[in-house]
Specification:
The protein is mostly helical. Helices cover 80% and strands 0% of the residues. The protein contains 17 helices and no strands. 59% of the residues are buried.
């Protein structure tokens, strides 16, 4: 019963977290242009800076929250983080100027550790060999949240750019209340370790990976994969509005369609692939699909083709959770929180690099002064990064 309740809460937490993120993505271009009075190319670059601010805080505070969960338990870290995120969405809904938006993104970055702590909960209640499938489950929940969130955000966004933020805040606070009454602590006291500030330095945390060569190489692969995949969160609404003049609701529906397909791939297909072909081939399959998708999106000229290709492109989403599960099997039970904190820092580091890289590429190839117009240029950048990640994974997995 304890495992069932914990799994249920984690699935809802990740799903509602994804809904909160998805709710606001379709309206971000219009919100930035509303508070900053800039064109779409400049709005995309500002959006990249906002994401950079969020990611920088996650990178700095990810190890701290991961180590707090190892010392004091997963439950309090999760619930407090959800409360802070809910209040932060309300701050974004009110923000009258661009500066307040940046403050809000800093706060959400500090408190946005729900994924890493949620992953640690599943590690607590899972045996080795089962964790890839478990991470696929929360990956599926995240995808399901992206079915509901963007669709709802697109619809609400038609009534005003601020309304989706209010809805996201309500969802986060409701989930915090749900966790308070349902979630039991999953990290037993015998598995806890004393809190140490020395373990909370994000740079030191990354350096400690060097003592585990297998984890170090896989973390580098994770960094490149995440940097490439972040192109969707950073560029998608700007890309589709620029190239196809999509409405806010259509942006939302496209993300919802992708989320549905990704949820099915991660929650159902990934487990079957791992059982039949193993984790290594499952990861490689995800890499190949992602590379082909990025090249295709760079030059596509049809809205219809985008929706036709979404089910295929979503298959690439299985590589991330499978890779995460592979790393979780390499460490002890008492180190799962620290591993997930380090993992969160690597993801956050990729989100520091990706927004600046992708938004700069978009601005360079869509600005009025550009010599070559190519709104899909960021997807080519993502394709190169993903191909590099696959090459490194192939080199590592041969040993």
């Amino acid at each position: 019963m304890k495992q069932t309740q914990a799994t249920l809460f984690i699935v809802f937490t990740v799903m509602l977290d994804a809904m909160g993120i998805g709710l606001i993505i379709p309206v971000m271009p219009n919100l930035i242009r509303e508070v900053a009075d800039v064109n779409l190319a400049d709005a995309a670059f500002i959006g990249g800076l906002l994401t950079f601010s969020f990611a920088a805080m996650q990178f700095l505070f990810g190890p701290l929250l991961g180590n707090l969960s190892d010392a004091y338990g997963r439950r309090p870290v999760l619930i407090i983080s959800l409360i802070c995120m809910g209040l932060d969405y309300f701050l974004m809904a009110w923000a009258p100027v661009l500066g307040i938006l940046f403050v809000a993104r800093v706060i959400s970055g500090i408190s946005g550790a729900t994924y890493s702590t949620a992953a640690a909960v599943l590690s607590d209640i899972s045996d080795k060999g089962e964790r890839s499938a478990k991470f696929g489950l929360i990956g599926g929940a995240f995808g399901l949240g992206f079915v509901l969130g963007p669709a709802l955000g697109g619809l609400l966004g038609e009534f005003g750019t601020r309304i989706p933020f209010v809805a996201a805040g309500i969802l986060a606070l409701a989930n915090a209340a749900f966790g308070f009454f349902v979630l039991q602590e999953t990290l037993v006291k015998s598995q806890r370790r004393a809190f140490q500030w020395s373990r909370c330095n994000p740079f030191a945390a990354l350096l400690r990976i060097q003592r585990l060569p297998a984890i170090a190489s896989l973390m580098l692969v994770t960094f490149l994969l995440a940097t490439a995949n972040n192109v969707y969160a950073v560029i998608w609404p700007f890309f589709t509005i620029e190239k196809f003049a999509w409405s806010v609701s259509l942006v939302g529906w496209s993300l919802a369609a992708y989320g549905l397909c990704a949820a099915l791939a991660q929650a159902v297909l990934m487990k079957w692939l791992i059982e039949r072909y193993g984790v290594r081939w499952t990861i490689l399959f995800g890499f190949v699909i992602s590379i082909a998708t990025f090249v295709w999106l760079a030059f596509i000229n049809s809205t219809l083709l985008i929706f036709i290709g979404i089910p295929i492109s979503a298959l690439g989403a299985i590589a991330g959770p499978a890779l995460q599960g592979l790393m979780a099997d390499e460490v002890t039970d008492s180190e799962q929180g620290e591993l997930q904190g380090i993992f969160a820092s690597v993801i956050a580091l990729s989100m520091i690099v990706s927004p600046l890289l992708m938004s700069s590429a978009f601005k360079a190839f869509t600005d009025q002064s550009t010599s070559y117009y190519l709104p899909g240029a960021p997807f080519l950048v993502a394709g190169v990064l993903m191909a590099t990640a696959m090459a490194l994974f192939l080199k590592k997995s041969k040993h």
